[in-house]
């Protein structure tokens, strides 16, 4: 069964809150930035990011599509 890797690149986030409106189960707001709930904090090539692996995609792709800047990425991964 495939899993999904959700990434939030916090340095790019403008804090519009679209992700939290579309998928409140996984997204919220923390100050003026989006927050991927229960995510691990990592340092990526392009700055800080939050990463979470989920088994059910839910509406995370819709949240990424609703974002006006490219800061949310959804990637299919195998077990």
Throw out a few tags for this protein.
about 80 residues, alpha+beta, Alpha-Beta Plaits, 4-stranded antiparallel sheet, two-stranded antiparallel ribbon
Describe the structure.
By secondary structure, the protein is α+β, with helices and mostly antiparallel strands. It has a single domain, classed as Alpha-Beta Plaits, CATH 3.30.70.20. Helix content is 15%, strand content 43%. The protein is built from two helices and six strands. A four-stranded antiparallel sheet has the order 4-5-1-6, with helices on one face. Strands 2-3 form a two-stranded antiparallel sheet. The longest helix has 7 residues. The protein is globular and about 35 Å long. The N and C termini lie close together (7 Å).
Helix content range of the residues, please? 10-25%
Please report the first level of CATH classification, the CATH class. Alpha Beta
Structural class: alpha+beta
Total domains = 1
Shape: globular
> How many helices?
2
CATH topology: Alpha-Beta Plaits
Number of strands: 6
């Amino acid at each position: 069964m495939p899993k999904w890797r959700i990434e939030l690149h916090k340095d790019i986030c403008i804090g519009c809150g679209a992700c939290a409106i579309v998928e409140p189960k996984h997204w919220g707001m923390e100050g003026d930035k989006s927050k991927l709930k229960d995510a691990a904090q990592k340092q990526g090539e392009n700055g800080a990011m939050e990463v979470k692996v989920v088994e059910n995609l839910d509406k995370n792709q819709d949240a990424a599509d609703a974002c006006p800047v490219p800061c949310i990425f959804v990637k299919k991964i195998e077990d």
